[in-house]
Structure prediction request, 133 residues.
Amino acid sequence: MTKREEYEHLLKRSKEFYLTATLQIEHGLFGLATFSLEQAVQLFLKAKLIMMGVDYPRTHSIRRLLELLAQVVDEDSSRILSALVSKYSLELASLEDAYIMSRYFPREFRREDAERLKRIVDEVMSIVSRIIG
Prediction:
């Protein structure tokens, strides 16, 4: 698979997970929705790293992926991404936890949790898209 094909595949999967999360929220499946949101933003960030010519690490940490992006963009954009990580550190950690928790532990998420995390994912993806394209 070429880098271009990998980029396109990751973006496609990201969109699919995002759509799945939206449907899961509508149907009251909030734990699964948070997992899908985590997958959507994680794959989106990995695609953007590929776009910037960076081989992404084998990590599920959204914060780490944003920090890597901050290292390869201009100074102003780097400040914006770093501020995003600081502003939403707790929520991003919650999304990262959803990757494990929704599969192995009995953690309950409420509608408010899933909807808030969805808004944050929307903001992260929007800002990164403005910076990287």
In short: The domain at 3-132 is CATH 1.20.120.330 (Four Helix Bundle (Hemerythrin (Met), subunit A)). Residues 46 and 58 are 10 Å apart (CA to CA). The mean pLDDT is 93.
